Amino acid sequence: MTGPQGQSRSGERRGIVTGLVYLFEQVMPDPFVLSIALTLVVILLAMAFAPHASLPVILTSWYGGTFGILGFALQMILILATGYAIAEAPIVQRGLRAMAASANTPARAALLVFPIVGVAAWLNWGLGLIVGALLSREIAKRVKVDFAWLVAGSYSAWSVCNSGLSSSIALSQASHGNALNLVEKATGQVVPLTQTIFAPFVFIPTVLVVVVMTAIFIRMHPNPEHVVPFNEPQADAGSRAVESDPHARVGSDVTLAAYIEHSILGTLLLLALGIGYLGMTWHAKGFELDINTTILIFLLIGLALQGTPIAYADAIRRAARQTGSMLLQYPVYGGIMGIMTGTGLASTIAKTFVAIATASTLPLWSYLSSLIITLLIPSAGGHWAVQGPFVLPAALSLHASVPRTAMGVAMAENVSNMLQPFWAVPVVAIAGIRIQRVMGYTAVTFAVSLVIYALALWLVP
Q1: What pLDDT band is residue 30 in, cutting at 50, 70 and 90?
Q2: Do 376 and 38 touch, CB atoms closer than 8 A?
Q3: How far apart are the first and last CA of the chain?
Q4: What is d(CA 172, CA 166) in angstroms, rounded to the nearest whole number?
Q5: Rounded-to-integer distance, Cα 236 and Cα 245, Å
Q6: Nearest CA to 299 among 261, 323, 280, 273?
Q7: Which residues cross the membrane (predicted)?
Q8: I want to staple 83 with a disulfide (CB 3.0 to 4.6 A). Which of 72, 127, 307, 375 is the partner?
Q9: How far is C-alpha 116 from the geometric centre of its chain's CA atoms?
């Protein structure tokens, strides 16, 4: 009796997931189109609830947000591009292929993808995105798995990134003089990483999400008759052959320009400058990471792994193909952020939750309000700039935990990203799959991680 009952329950679970995948395929538009639709939603919400939603304010705020985000957008794109250059280095590629060779069943694929991508994302969100997409491709070439399921698993493992070393919110509050260090501006003190990403209430749910979702994804894999495997695009091999040496020059003679391009001297110079700066700064001020030093570190690692300047330039050129959609969406979401800030809509949302909070419940209410705001502003740094000015003063006046309140915002980023396709766009572009099928699976991750992080904020010391 147990066997048939277990099969029935397994079939019901797969049926629910299949329904979610079908639903997302039917109703979810292209992410850029979705961002335009969200702009309209925010305008309507602002007109209904925001205190300053006049037409001139909406237009001015939209314009300012659209172009005010460009500097931050470049930082985020560089994190992704430098992470891509590392993941595409020959030694890293050989490692990915070697790891993929051991995944000969869907269960082993999940057991491989989740911890590797989870660790990579914890170290750097850009690295996690790239490793997840490339590892998924390598595995799918070797074993019959549902490719959307596998890519969704890697994206789910990546979801922990805002609890890791590249967390914009945690890093900014730990960085002296950072423009987004709202804690330092209010109190004159920084919040060290030991009180945020290394605190038990953060790293315990981070590990739990990876472990629990691994088990759930293994059970969610479609039955063999419903599996849609990976199909390598026919043009892929040809395009690689054409681009194997994009800087090849006419004639067989080695030119001075070619010699300079393939010399490691340029790499050594940049490595010396970067390592020298980091060593000097950390010796004088102590070890600290912020967005710019994270970019610098990954730039240096990528240069060292690629070897020559031209090899690194080629890797970044290929990375730029995957960031094109982000270049398109960032200004639109910047406009959304501008409208929410300028009209007071974001403050209305945050204040609604803060008004009913106590010292013990404020982190949880911060988390819940962040879930809503993240769907409209899918960038942790930009999100903190909107929500932080309201939840932080509330934490100080209520004598609530400042680190817990701030990380409540970051944890909600992890959760909402499973329904907000903004960060999935580069993953599916690299993997070569439609985003709608992936988001059907990650909706399950949203529901599970929502509960795990909320319980951690509430119960874990």
Answers
A1: confident
A2: yes
A3: 43
A4: 10
A5: 15
A6: 273
A7: 32-50, 62-87, 107-135, 197-218, 256-279, 291-312, 332-358, 364-386, 438-460
A8: 127
A9: 15
**Which residue's structure tokens are 């293994």?**
218
What the block records as the tokens of 357 is: 């909070």
Domain boundaries, the chain: 10-233+255-459
Half-sphere exposure of 51 (CA within 13 A, CB side): 7
- Is 137 in a helix, a strand, or coil? helix
pLDDT in tens, 212-233: 999 999 999 988 888 888 876 5
Cβ contact 238:32 at 8 Å: no
Structure tokens at 362: 């404020």
Mean pLDDT of the chain: 85
* Predicted confidence (pLDDT) per residue in 224-280, tens digit: 888 888 876 544 443 443 344 444 444 445 777 787 888 899 999 999 999 999 999
Tell me the pTM. 0.79
Residues 6+ apart with CB under 8 A from 20: 440, 441, 443, 444
Residues 6+ apart with CB under 8 A from 40: none
